[in-house]
Amino acid sequence: MGMRPQHAAGKEHLISWIPENIRKKECTYFVESSQTSDAGRVVCHCGYLREQHLDDAAKPPIFLGKEWDASRHIQEMPTDAFGDIRFTGLGQRLGKYVRVSSDTPPRVIFHLMTQHWGLDPPNLLISVTGGAKNFIMKPRLKNIFRQGLVKVAQTTGAWIITGGSHAGVMKQVGEAVRDFLLSCGHKDSEIVTIGIATWGTVYNRESLICPMGGFPAEYVLDEENQGSLSCLDSNHSHFILVDDGTHGRYGVEIPLRTRLEKFISEQTKVKGGVAIKIPIVCVVLEGGPGTLDTIYNAITNGTPCVIVEGSGRVADVIAQVASLPVPKITIALIQKKLSVYFHDTYEHFTEGKLVEWTKKIQDIVRHRQLLTIFREGKYGQQDVDVAILQALLKASQNQDHFGHENWDHQLKLAVAWNRVDIARSEIFTDDYEWKPTDLHPVMAAALISNKPEFVKLFLEQGVRLKEFVTWDTLVYLYDNLAPSCLFYSKLQKVLLEEREHTGGSKMPRIQLHHVSQVLRELLGSSTQHLYPKPKHTERPRLSIPVPHIKLNVQGSSLRSLYKRSAGRVAFTMDPVRDLLIWAVVQNREELAEIIWAQSQDSMAAALACSKILKELAKEEEDTDTTDAMLALAEQYEQKAIGVFTDCYRKDEERAQKLLTRVSEAWGKTTCLQLALEAKNMNFVSHGGVQAFLTKVWWGKMCVDNGLLRVIACVLLFPLLFTSLITFREKRLQPMGCLTRLRAFFTAPVVIFLMNILSYFTFLLLFAYVLMVDFQSSPSWREYLIYFWLFSLVCEEIRQLLYDPDGLGVVKMATLYFKDFWNKLDVCAILVFITGLTCRLIPSTLYPGRIILSLAFTIFCLRLMHIFTVSRTLGPKIIIVKRMLKDVFFFLFLLAVWVVSFGVAKQAILIHNEERVEWLFRGVVYHSYLTIFGQIPSYIDGVNFNIDQCSPNGTDPYKPKCPETNEDNKKPIFPEWLTVILLCLYLLFTNILLLNLLIAMFNYTFQQVQEHTDQIWKFQRHDLIEEYHGRPPAPPPLILINHLQLLLRRGLLRRPPTHHKQLKEKLEKNEEAALLSWEMYLKENYLQHQQCQEKRNTEKKIQDIAQRVDALAELLDLDRVKRTGLVEQRLASLEDQVHQNAQALRWIMLALQGNGFSSGEDMPLVGSSKALEMKELDLEEKLEETQPSYHVLARNLLYPGSHTLRFPVPDEKVPWEVDFPLYAPPTYSADHKDMAVQDPFSPSLESLLKINYNSMDGLIDRQSFHGLYAVQDGLPLNPMGRTGLRGRGRLHCFGPNHALHPIVTRWRRNLDGSIIRKSLKKMLEVLVAQYPLSDVWALPGGSLEPGETLPLKLKWILRREFWPQFQNLLKQGTEVHKGYLDDPRNTDNAWVETVAVSVHFDSQNDVEMKRLNSFLQGCDPELCIRWQVLDKRIPLHTNHKELLHKVSTLLGAYY
Q1: 1037 vs 215, 748, 769, 1448, CA distance in Å?
Q2: Are β-strands 1274-1275 and 1341-1342 bridged in parallel, bridged antiparallel, or unpaired?
Q3: Beta carbons within 10 angstroms of residue 924's beta carbon
Q4: Strand order across the beta sheet in which 192-198 lies
Q5: What is the dihedral of CA 53, 58, 61, 67, to 10 degrees?
Q6: Alpha carbon of 863 to those of 49, 856, 1322: distances in Å?
Q7: I need a labelling partner for 1196 at 20 to 30 A (CA). Which of 35, 537, 772, 1264 fits?
Q8: What pairs with residue 882 in β-bridges?
């Protein structure tokens, strides 16, 4: 119910926002066309009937022309179709839809989808294209495709974009989503499937028109009557219906879909600390000519494509030729493939169409890095989801980039998709060596977005937590806590308190001392602050230098994450602890387990985690989260027990040291203290812990001394000098040793026995004084009691103020009063002092005795504490404590019945009783006694006696009489009513409530009885600790010890110290050795746990099930592979036979050469066909090794224009090859800013003035390739056809000369040594990025007539350095001179360049230093940099070829 107003508000906002921002298109002028509708009626040129137009459209105004023109007669107006769509009869699932104009900006649609439809921006965009009509796919391939597509969408959080109609590939996608939703069931698993369709082709679209929004609009899917139109697919979640004002015309949505996909792919998605540009992939099933254009455009724009082989038509044609070298993809081959896969429509393919298809398929296959063919049963690629993700990563790997930024991008994608399998198989390979520091940003992202598998992977890849976890990283991680987590709200409270304390208006930023404050609340006061508050800006941590690295993490660079002060970073003391706490407070189980496995102080870490989780669970409101936290707390307790068990088995002494070692990392507390704070009974009751406590309890004595022997020695201490008592230490073995006496009387067990003896003596004396010797003036025995009590008070004060941890008086007081027995002590002492005060005043002597008697009762109750040492009675005291709680709650229930019955009885029987004490007796006291059988005699009137009551209520010792008859003094109250009330009262109290109490007691008893041993072992510690730290002398002699303490603290100023047995600070070397030993045993424990899991029956069943599934999959694939395997073997056999034949032929030739036989008799070895094939293969290999024809010069879209070249396949490039169809368009750009350029429109007169193959004035028209042909006044490109006539964007017909200096130096380390890769030296090259260009280029370009340096080179060099640079060029080495494959080249104009290598071999080269000083940018947008030279450097393709030549010349790495 709470969501409805919010939903309604969102709907209202949508109703107002959409018409303002989104338009539709309508035809405003009806002009009859020659076509008719399906019903044979007259339609307009737009395709709509007359009545479907606006009213004014049918009345032609005078100003409109007679010819129908879409640009003039179709107008935009606010859209009238949007809202929710429900498909009638197909469930209650609602989708979203909107009708948009074909000219709508993509950003508006994206805003609608993310802000108003509530879609999260995707981590991946999957554009599915292919056949728009229904087609048949093999069932197995169909299933593989459906499962894979849905899996990739679900695991990566992708959007799937299709054409949205209920046919063809769109239907396949819809059914895949439907099957997934049916199998999954829960709402969170919805897959975003966006259908972008043409409004004018949607059948039944009238039902979607709702000017105020359809919420929901009912849509009927009617395939039978749709005719040439198409229905929307019911399994898509969102629809964008593109309207251009026409009816029945398909393909209208394609331009908008392309723009929208491009816009989305340019957006940056920030999630979990990773910023990625949204990647896009095109998935192709089947398809016709439109699909080929889509694939071509996608490949041209750099979008990777996955072609599903076996789906039919275009997909199969491309899949068949994708593995062939480009020269082998000929027109004849494509013709053959089309005749096979397009057998129904093959006759529609004209010769021109075949040429166009061949050219496009050649260009598609040429970009193999963007093309992935999904073949069913292909090794390592059984799933479509893997193929899709591999395609994206393959495209990314082959993309040009600087340094390692491309690998980072791939890793960010894998993290965003949460596909650790892809990261392992595709990214962390031998192709690239990852530095651990490179992984820090993605490590932070994996932690924040809770991706434990990635955290594990990064740790395997060498990320060291000591380097990763800095002070600022931790602050960043706590800044990104999940707002729903309880720890976050506790932190906010601390920040709020600080703001109120400082009086600031702005909320302070989270710092680690704020975190420490909350952690101390959770870990308990026995710990110190984990992160002390830094003074000013200094951070009390180790600082070490860190290499410079810059990568985007959540919009900010890593430099802001690792804040530096002069290149130094503040590291924390224990990074594993810090990360573990961060994971545990968010209840992230898997993440915490991975981090805990890295910890050194693992036992303390596990116990601390248990304590934190238990404390958070107390405050957590959500019961599911509470249960999860408590379960996790128990897991960590079990981990601590497991590690301690292994340690205890190995070495008892060292294991016990781990219990009492002061852990600096965990706030200077001990493992034992943490376990007690967390009430980890299982841990404390462990045999090893108990053995340690027993050892502490017996002090320096052997634990096998009998209690009777100890009591005997307490009563007769000379027995100590006999062999009655044995000691552990050898120095205490001699019987005459006086230290035996000290060792015996300082043992906690002896102190305890002496205190019991003392306490019993005190109680006996106190009882004697109260009952026998209580005089008006105190006797010596009474004074002795007062003195005794004084010693008890001093001991309580010592316990209250004794503070070895420096916690402060307030904290010590809190801890002191937490103990029930301390509260009882204070209560007894206060009551005694009150009684003593009254006793010393003669007038209040008797009340004083009464109060002292009560004090005696409380002192007797204190005796119960002594029984906690007993294994039998100790748990019984716990039972009594818990039963007291039960009684307390029970009394509330009882009070209701007692008071209700008492008031009713009193009101019925007695009239106006004014005496308060008798009112209380009648209402409460008598009612209470009735429960136990003391029923008032007058309640039923039978045993009524007037002498036992006071008629007027005047006798203070008698109750007032009930209502009676004035004449015969008989009761007149309704006896039947009082009897019924009494019966009901007894029924409910005696039978129901008392039995309820007994049941509660029984439950409590059973609960405690089950854990008797544990409870006793746990509470035993408190007693041992109390007597371990207690002065050895019993009261009242304890005052001697108190005086000694006072002298030590007051006069000598010595701080209080812990006894080493319970809290011991080890030396650094000893502690390091102990922790290493613990870590080694923790590893053993984890391995043992893994073995146990494997042996687990459920795990075994699960493994067997997985293996059976894998086996079934393999058997299924075997059928598919079998045919291919046979083919491979036959091919291999044929190859071997051919080799044998060749060898035999060579032997026969050799024999013939030696005169053994004549050539005429020599038989032909091997079939002629095989030989022909071999020759052909050799020819092809030669062809592949030879440089191919120009490629960039044949790109279909000419750069900087809308002109499309005529498609020229590879085989038709040479002028010598006949190409009758060749009819290229003509294009020559007009450069208004250029003084020298050839005629804009080539007329024969102007062309005849040009002197080709010579110097034409200042213009050099000579080619480096010799003379070139001139035809019809125009020169012909020496490299062959390009598909375009004219001079394009070049200035001159014929060769356009350019100069490209390649300036290089060796890449060096800081010490000046040359860096090598694959044993080869690495180069750095000077590159520039010019304004209005996205790519980097070599600093060179076209030469102006008469100039020696290119204009672009002059831009980056100061004028005074030009002559010196010319000298450098003269000294340089020419690496290329001739034709340059440039996208601007045409049939009649081309670029020829001279590439000169200028290499600086020494780092101290004067010329290089001078060059660096003269580099300048005449434009602020011009960038110049030295860049590492390798094959992935992002330069123009033709420039990269020049760099390859330079690296070969210098023998450098490329």
Answers
A1: 88, 17, 21, 98
A2: unpaired
A3: 16
A4: 214-219, 82-87, 94-101, 238-243, 192-198, 158-162, 124-130, 280-285, 305-308, 371-374
A5: 80
A6: 104, 11, 86
A7: 1264
A8: none
Tens of pLDDT, residues 1204-1232: 999 999 899 999 999 999 999 999 887 76
Q: How far is CA 325 from CA 122, 1172, 1185, 1373, in A?
A: 36, 19, 11, 34
Confidence at residue 160, expressed as pLDDT on a 0 to 100 scale: 93
Residue 223 burial (CB count, 10 A): 11
Q: Cβ distance 330 to 336 under 8 Å?
A: no
Q: What is the DSSP letter of 121?
A: P
Instruction: Give the tokens for residue 490.
Output: 């506790």
The CA-atom distances, in angstroms, between 1255 and each of 949, 1240, 1263, 1288 are: 147, 21, 10, 22
In single-letter form, the type of residue at position 1168 comes to S
Distance between CA atoms of residues 1226 and 1287, nearest Å: 8
Residues 1006/879, Cβ–Cβ less than 8 Å: no
Label residue 1421 by pLDDT band (50, 70, 90): low
CB-based contact 291:266 (threshold 8 Å): no
Cβ pair 551, 558 in contact under 8 A: yes
Taken in order 1374, 1378, 1381, 1385, the sign of the CA dihedral is positive
- Mind listing the pLDDT tens digit for each residue in 968-999? 567 767 777 878 888 888 888 888 888 888 88
CB count, 10 Å around CB of 1047? 11
Contact 355, 331 (CB under 8 A): yes
Distance CA(295)–CA(316), nearest Å, equals 13
Phi, psi of 1339 (to 5 degrees): -75, 80
Per-residue buried b or exposed e for 494-517, using 16+ beta carbons within 10 Å of the residue's own CB: bbeebeeeeeeeeeeebbbebbbb
Min mean pLDDT across 167-181, 780-794, 1125-1139 is at: 1125-1139
- Quick check: 343 and 337 in contact, CB under 8 A? no
First to last CA, the chain: 66
Residue 956: both structure tokens together: 């203070």
The pLDDT of residue 1164: 47
Beta bridge partners of 100: 242
Q: How many residues comprise the chain?
A: 1454
Note whether 1453 and 1323 are within 8 A (CB). yes
Q: Determine contact, residues 687/648, Cβ cutoff 8 Å.
A: yes
CA distance 1047 to 1039: 12
- The single-letter code of the amino acid at 450 is N
Distance in angstroms (rounded) separating the CA atoms of residues 727 and 745: 13
d(CA 1020, CA 870): 9
H/E element, 768:
helix 748-771
Q: Are 1046 and 1052 in contact (CB under 8 A)?
A: no
- Residues 268, 275 contacting (CB under 8 angstroms): yes
* Peptide linkage before 575 cis (omega within 30 of 0): no
Encoded amino acid at 693, one letter: L
The widest CA-to-CA distance across the chain, in whole angstroms, is: 167
Note the pLDDT tens digit of each residue in 1069-1103.
998 999 999 999 999 999 988 888 777 777 778 77
Please, how many CA atoms are within 13 Å of residue 521, restricted to the half-sphere of its CB?
A: 15
> How far is it, in rounded angstroms, from Cα 141 to Cα 564?
55
Instruction: Specify the pLDDT at position 568.
Output: 43
Q: Residue 946 pLDDT more than 80?
A: no
As a whole number of angstroms, the distance between CA 873 and CA 426 comes to 66
CA 565/CA 656 separation, integer angstroms:
44
Report the distance separating Cα 928 and Cα 918, nearest Å.
Answer: 14
Distance of CA 473 to the CA centre of its chain: 16
pTM of the complete model: 0.71
**Which of helix, strand or coil describes residue 322?**
coil
Q: What is the dihedral of CA 827, 830, 834, 837, to 10 degrees?
A: 150
Residue 1132 has φ and ψ, to the nearest 5°, of: -65, -45
